[in-house]
């Protein structure tokens, strides 16, 4: 028997590999954005692509997000499959006009004649000590826009699989990359990439019986840590990694919550008007008779993303999650 | 009548002889960047101004070096240096009257300091303890702006408002070469020209937007040429010639104050350091290019001029260096103190009155901090 040494790879490397494989498999795939060429992107996710595929396939664009996404629309109209990089979460906002007015509704307004297979890669979320505009969690804006898929990996393998699936999708996909997990590693073999995950499936990362933590992206490792810590309290927590916010995997989520009877949604973005409200409502609508307690949310505060020195107070951490789990032993207030 | 018949019937009236609204010729920038130092124009320059510029450049260079050093010590989260670009930074601050406004980009900490903002406060954003460390109204400096070019329409709006109120206030807005590609840049220029707003746009063309060279940013003959299409003058200046930048910006400010409307100034300079301390510039440029620009250093250019004219001796240079060193020592001392932050500040200024859910969240955090303080009196960690 031969053992294959499995190299630990980072999430950023898995994303690079996914882009490379997609470009090699389909000449219609074009990567574009600010600094994606010579520099390989500020997070080096597009490293080497310009060299390998030429600057027409991996293009340093002028510095203009509306222009990047707007021209991608035209390229997609003409049969290409653009993968655009928005350098940071909060720098994608100039492109919202294109995203909301055109990208998200082109299929619908043309009765299916003009689908736009565009992948929009957005590094998002906090925890890396970035100054203002480098830590936003903007998923709620994307989720609120019909016509967009919204996905976010939490593991190295998913980063590869989901990005391949996003690029293969005939619909626009907002691909949110949790930037604080870029350097996370696990034993994923870049030479034998995992099969492509279909978009829209959640996955149970850890099974348990006491309660379900519903989470995604950067909060998945935090929830896994919380689940470990909860054992000391006698709680056996299940962790569901949503992976895809749109479409939403009601099946996996509800199966889990019906088993455990209790749920907490965990994410970095603010709770008011945030993704957790939608998720809690869906779970309540579908699992009401199974629930032993209200679905709780542990989220970032409803404040503009704070400066680095205060972000640890803002981001949902293990203690806050455990507090919420404690409150799930819910009894009606008298 | 069917639509097609209607279309067939449509006859546009022939246009009257077309006239451009403005003659583009006087708006066009000169082919060569304007220079003062080392030319005949230098003889006309005010010696006192040149000396002031010199002292400020030396101080600015020292500030850049000190701030960069602070990133290495972990005292600053990030610093985008303006080493090599000091002439633009200093001139931008010096040409403004007290009542005028400066709208800096994220790179322009030095201009903010030269405008009078406390050096430590100017670094607050980059240090990571708050988003803007200074009171924008105290020195009339808008917050350092991280998204590119978004401050430019603000500058136009402020200048317009001042004029509506009858104040002769000018706004000077700074942007990089890359930022000129953003939609906000174009919209700001257009509004400014249509409104004849008293604004000066200063583009510091330092060659790169992170890794992307100017040639990939624009196909225009120069960035200053962009002005003409909006109906304002474009001026090209050697951005390493402090006297020239000062003169061109002063002209533009005077023109704006007198009701002449906006000007776009492109200063040609170079980013000697990497984009920020986190950037690896060797990936996109060679040392030879950087060396050429080092030889065209703004401080040396001015020093040569001053020395040749007998306006600066060794003692004068030493005095400038000593003043800069004192500033750096003071900055170091202040930056080496840990800032005292109150986590409750998270909720302090989101709205004029905190909303009910913010009050709830504030109480939650307070309870958490109290609980943490009880279990770990040293101010224990919060997981
Ligand atoms: C809207 C927006 N997009 C992207 C960025 C990320 N970013 C920060 S600085 C920079 C390059 C800016 O280049 P330039 O305008 O030439 O100014 P310089 O850094 O050279 O002073 C980029 C792309 C940003 N800050 N804002």
TrEMBL record, chain A:
It is an enzyme of class 1 (oxidoreductase). The keyword Oxidoreductase applies. InterPro entries: THDP-binding, Transketo_C/PFOR_II, Transketolase-like_Pyr-bd, Transketolase_C. Keywords: Oxidoreductase, Pyruvate. It comes from the Bacteria. One of its GO terms (biological process) is response to nutrient. Its cofactor is thiamine diphosphate. Coiled coil: none annotated. SMART domains: Transket_pyr. Pfam families: Transket_pyr, Transketolase_C. Residues 9-184 form the Transketolase-like pyrimidine-binding domain. GO terms for molecular function: branched-chain 2-oxo acid dehydrogenase activity; magnesium ion binding. Its EC number is 1.2.4.4. This is 3-methyl-2-oxobutanoate dehydrogenase (2-methylpropanoyl-transferring).
From TrEMBL, chain B:
Residues 1-26 are annotated as: Disordered. One of its GO terms (biological process) is branched-chain amino acid catabolic process. Pfam families: E1_dh. Its EC number is 1.2.4.1. SUPFAM superfamilies: Thiamin diphosphate-binding fold (THDP-binding). InterPro entries: Alpha-ketoacid_DH_E1_comp, DH_E1, PdhA/BkdA, THDP-binding. This is Pyruvate dehydrogenase E1 component alpha subunit. It comes from Streptomyces caelestis.
